[in-house]
Amino acid sequence: MDRADRLQRLQLLSETDATQTALFQQAAAATYGLGLTEMRALSILLRQGPQTAGALVRALHVTSGAVTGVVDRLVRRGLARRGADPTDRRKVVVSVDLEGLAAGENVYLGIGEAFQELYADYTDAELEFLERHLAASIEITARETARLHQQD
Question: How many whole angstroms separate alpha carbon 72 and alpha carbon 31?
Answer without folding.
Answer: 18
